[in-house]
Amino acid sequence: MAGSAELIEIANRTVRISNPGKLCFPRTGHTKLDLVRYYLAVTDGALRGAGGRPLILKRFVKGVGQPPFFQKRAPTTRPEWIETVTLAYPSGRSADEVVVRDAAQLAWVVNLGCVDLNPHAVRSDDLDHPDELRVDLDPVPGVEWRQITAVALVVRDVLADAGLIGWPKTSGSRGFHIVCRIARRWTFSQVRRAAEALAHEVARRAPELATSRWWKEERHGVFVDYNQTTTRSHTVKAAVYARISATTDTSDVTIAEQQRRGLAIVRERGWTLVPDGALDTFTDDGLSASKRKPRPAFDRMLELAERGAVEVIVVRDVDRLLRNRRDLARLDVGVKVAQWDGQVIDEMMLDLLASVAMSEARQISKRVARNEALRVNDGEKAKAPRGGV
Length: 389
What we know:
This protein is of the alpha/beta class. The protein is 33% helix and 22% strand.
């Protein structure tokens, strides 16, 4: 039954498989226990790719038909034989992440709902020097498979010219990753620059088939994404938030300008962009931050921040982000805020600036109400409500 548990003896350890009959793949009828058994059958291959590396847990707790969530921190309740390593983040926080080395540890991770494995490009004994250079071949909509494979062959040739060998790996989406093992001699910044140079050279050799342009609207064919080598311990995961509640003539407040400037800041700082689904930015157009009405994009962004998938929110200023205590409390998850003026605001400063913004919002509301009362007293018709920026 789906609600029962099954104990499996693996490598002299007892692994508890919860809900073994739970459907992981509803279309084919394969269960969680089927998935565990599959991984046990291919343990050697799985550990060659992911063994000895810190893992980001990508958990499909409701099966592959529902969106997964990413968990970087190892569950606090875990067997004593589950290995972890501590990764320090640029935000000042750290996370103990799971390291898998044997079949029992692998089965335990799969039991959490991990259908695929997402290892960092480093090994647990040296978190500062990656041993893999990675690129992702990401086709724009409409690109056929033969064009993706043609670009992969160009990548192979560019790597061969540098004396390197790349190994293709399906990504689970429409493209695939190319992984190149390297000596542990270089920093993440150096390896990332090498991956960027690789992408630009591929685009130069096959300009009709591939692109290395960062902005989605400028891409065509197959995008050679060189950000895959960065590890989450060395790159900030940033979301861009844009909001406006009324039309304004101030050019730097428009939604389009907020999006453009925010994305530029993410690019300039070398941060990893966290998109809102298919959209680059989280945008609430025509919604006030001072009222308690839902802001769908803001809510989605906060859900990711609570899971650790967003570390910095890029916004024009705190006033765009929040104007009430409830939302301020929700931001108390260790996330920082980067404004256009270059400030990266921590929790203490965020509380201060948010208090100022909320005070200003209250004063504006009182002033509007007072002026409206004066108009009515003078016999004028009351104006229809109008939001501010």
